[in-house]
Design brief:
Largest sheet: 2 strands, antiparallel
Shape: elongated
Helix content: over 70%
Distance between the termini: 44 Å
Structural class: mainly alpha
Strand content: under 5%
Radius of gyration: 20 Å
Order of helices and strands: HHHEEHHHHHHHH
Amino acid sequence: MAGDARSAALHQGVARELGIEIIDRTWAGERPRTLEDVQDRFGVSRTVAREASRQLEAMGLLRILRRRGLVPQPPESWNVLDPLLIDWRLHSADREQQLRSLTHLRMAIEPAAAANTAAHATIHVRAQLLALASELRRTGEAGDLGTFMEHDIAFHSLLLTSSGNEMFAALSGLVAAVLQGRTELDLMPAHPKQEALAAHEAVADAVFRGDPAAARAAMEVILAEVREAIAED
């Protein structure tokens, strides 16, 4: 078991480094590599090199071709909704573009998800959102960004998964990836803005009262703040 875990950690580390090189365009399609190249560079076994390559192929970042080897693919081939790819892009030179794209996607999806949740959520979900909004204020005002992030992920994930729309629910991992990335990359203020904290409380209150229009409007306020923060970076 320990050997399996070590092998998995190795191939994931190799895949991440090579993946970011593809994202950064420092490894392009005109320069294929072989499994032997990967083995030599990272000092890993052929099995680890193969698993890393298969992971990258599954993400659309490269193709494994006979007689050519490992061929990086252009952005239009990438599985851009893969949370792992999102994390890599956030830690690459592509960070600003990724943040913009994700924010635009969230602006299209999350207000509708908040409205749906206000219309259909159970009383347990409604109460849980109120509690999470309270924790967001407490940890935000205390400057405890790590715990704030955990509550923020739980808040937005609960809205998406409780919306009654399986497509919205499937995006919860994506939103979690960008919220975590924004914190890890020091793109959050030391203390979240009061407007953002109040808007989370407004979303929770509107959902609790069963007011879809108010929930949608409050979520739009949250995402407008995110858009402005990204524009300032």
